[in-house]
Amino acid sequence: PLDRFVLFRLPPLLGGWAWLAIALLVVVATAALVAPHVRRAPVPVVAIDDDACTGCELCIADCPFEALAMRDRTDVDLHAGTQARRPIAVVDTARCVGCGICVGSCSFGAMALPGFDSPERIDPAGRHVVIACSRHLNAASAFDRDDPSLAVVEVPCSGMVHAHAVGALVQAGASEVQVVGCAPGDCAYGFGNRVLAERLSGERAPHVPKRWVGTAEADWVAPGELVAAIAAPNAHPDANADHVVGGRRMIGAIAVVAASVVAVVLATRAPYAGDAAGSGVRVLVDHVPGRVLEGQTSASGSPGDTVEVVVRSGDREVAREAVPVRGGAAVGLVDVTLDAGDVELAVALDQGDRETVLFDGVASLAAGRRLFVQAVDVPPPPGLAEGRDVFQDRSLGGCGLCHSTAAGDDGVGPSLSGVADRAETRVPGLSAAEYLRQAVLDPDVYVVDGYRDGVMLPIYGDRLTPAQVEAVVAYLLSLDTAAGADDDKEMP
After folding, report:
1. Contact predicate 290/483, CB 8 Å
2. Distance CA 168, CA 180 (A)
């Protein structure tokens, strides 16, 4: 079935396109890692005029990147006699991204952004002044900047516009003043659009003087919609409204999604024939030596044994391969290639001086097919995993605080490694399960030699539910000698 997240990679990786697919994945992954570090044009850093800065701290409040801080000035202001100046703003050049939002917060001309002019410096007389951020101007391919009826001011972010610029442009003769910023939630610098909207409405300092409130038209639209915004000013005046994606942008988004789906489908349908000519036997091993394998009636091997897969064809041994052991469990996949046809085949696990037969008979091996043989332990009884969770959870059993499950690791209480074997003979007349249940609920009835009574409190009858008690008993019954090498392995 089609899987667009993971499995679509498998056909090309497993088929004849493997090297091409790997090379493509490497290129894509490398590009993703390198792209953020590719050297781009240096970002302009705001310049601060120390003599003009009054220390009002509005710029610090507005900076989205915490690139500004106040610093005490140690020199003396010659115009104020011997009185030391107030703290002034300083910029952290490593954090400044050149958005210019702080410039729009300064009413004293103490900040400037190299490469960008203040709106007040243009000639607005009789013209429609459009102040737009760089994203909009770069995306407006059909926009005519040389239109004599327009005066265009480019800013890196609409938040760079000072509220007083509106009145200055109107006083200088502008027929209209329009600010075009990013749609709600779409500002490249976080919230520059919202900052300017609050300045223009009088909700944020520096405010527009009352007589100029409502003079500027504001449109908060997506990049690519600049031309439409100029043609119909003030159609999107709410910087907090949900933005409706335009038709052209919606078509573009649909095209991107469709292209990705097509690419996934093509990858999923890549030809994969596998090993069309080969045949043989494949053995899956997931086994703790000393435990019972599925299909067997008794334990296979002993704890600590090495595990080898042995494959024989007739009287000839064709393969012997060791299975790696991790945490007491032998886990691995052994694949042996054989000629197609009817073959007398025997597959076995060799553990120390014991061999467990997994398959013995005539196998009809077809070209491109494998006989699949499993050497997997019988799953643990129900409740075992829950019992281990209760055993380890400090808010429930918390048994692991005093009892280790590692052999020979005695602590406040004795090690519980192999406790299932000892429990069978610990108290005459009690089965292993009965003894363990008693030890949990009434621990002082029987105390192991070398340990004193009163240490383990009889609190678990109240703390645990009957089902949780039985789950703990089931877990303790799994800690037999055969499981000793695997006591600390995660339970299924």
Report:
1. yes
2. 18
Question: For the chain, how long is the longest CA-to-CA vector?
Answer: 109
Q: Whats the size of the chain, residue-wise?
A: 492
- Region 422-437: mean pLDDT is 88
Q: Using one digit for the tens of pLDDT, what is the confidence trace for 92-130?
A: 999 999 999 999 999 999 999 998 877 767 888 999 999
pLDDT tens profile 257-268: 999 889 888 887
Residue 349: φ, ψ to 5°:
-105, 125
Q: Parallel, antiparallel, or unpaired for β 128-133 and 150-155?
A: parallel
Task: Convert the pLDDT of each residue in 461-474 to its tens digit.
Answer: 888 898 889 888 98
Tokens of 100: 């210019």
Average the pLDDT over 326-332 and give the result: 85
pTM (2 d.p.)? 0.50
Question: φ and ψ at 361, to 5 degrees?
Answer: 170, -165
Structure tokens at 102: 């702080």
Residue 491 pLDDT exceeds 50 = no
Q: Rounded CA gap, 298 and 200, in Å?
A: 83
Distance CA 226, CA 145 (A): 12
Neighbours of 176 (CB within 10 A): 20
Distance CA 60, CA 48 (A): 13
- On the CB side of 327, how many CA atoms lie within 13 Å of its CA? 8
How many helices, marked H, and strands, marked E, lie in the chain?
14, 18
For tokens 């894509």, name the residue. 28
The verdict on whether omega for the bond into residue 206 sits within 30 degrees of 0, i.e. cis, is yes
Cα pseudo-dihedral 133, 136, 141, 142, rounded to 10: -90
Q: What amino acid is encoded at 291 in this protein?
A: R
* Strands 307-313 vs 341-351: parallel, antiparallel or unpaired: antiparallel
Q: Return the structure tokens found at 62.
A: 């507005």
- Rounded Cα gap, residues 180 and 234, in angstroms: 9
Give the span between the Cα atoms of 255 and 266, in whole angstroms. 16
Identify the H or E element spanning 68: strand 68-71
